[in-house]
Specification:
globular; Sig_transdc_resp-reg_receiver; 19% strand; single chain; 140 residues; 5 strands; alpha/beta; TCS_response_regulator; Rossmann fold; CheY-like_superfamily; Response regulatory domain-containing protein
Length: 140
């Protein structure tokens, strides 16, 4: 992993799930910069600006992406496929997980090939520790 503080993107339309996940991430990744969105389209539009050649020196290019599978407008898999398709391939090497409330949420969804897997909500501190271990092993 890089020496800079870890950058984490969290996208969920449920404010309570978003709050719980952010709180648990804050407790485990104390130095992390965590950015949250309630809408995948807004998150995608923001991230598109971070890969432009004229972006400011500060860029938010998350090391870890957690996105709800059943988002309105653009689903979690659609969001990741769009992100991975951006020019330059910057996000293809980033670790992403789809979050879901229950096993049945996963049914019928195509999982992007660069997606590391599913995480059942609520996102617990224990699961965050597993993700940290996974991240320290490097990209797949």
């Amino acid at each position: 992993m890089k020496d800079d503080p870890m950058q984490i993107l969290l996208v969920d339309h449920n404010e309570i799930d978003l709050y719980i996940a952010q709180r648990n991430l804050d407790s485990e990744f104390r130095q992390a910069e965590i950015l949250t969105f309630l809408d995948t389209e807004k998150a995608f539009e923001f991230l598109k600006t971070q890969v432009l050649p004229d972006s400011p020196e500060y860029r938010f290019v998350p090391d870890l992406i957690l996105v709800e599978i059943n988002m309105p407008q653009m689903s979690g898999p659609e969001f990741l496929n769009s992100l991975y398709g951006l020019k330059g391939g910057l996000y293809k090497k980033k670790r992403a997980y789809l979050t879901h409330a229950m096993y049945s949420d996963r049914m019928g969804h195509h999982v992007p090939k660069n997606c590391a897997g599913f995480i059942q909500k609520p996102i617990t501190v224990e699961r965050i520790r597993e993700i940290l271990q996974d991240l320290s092993s490097g990209p797949h």
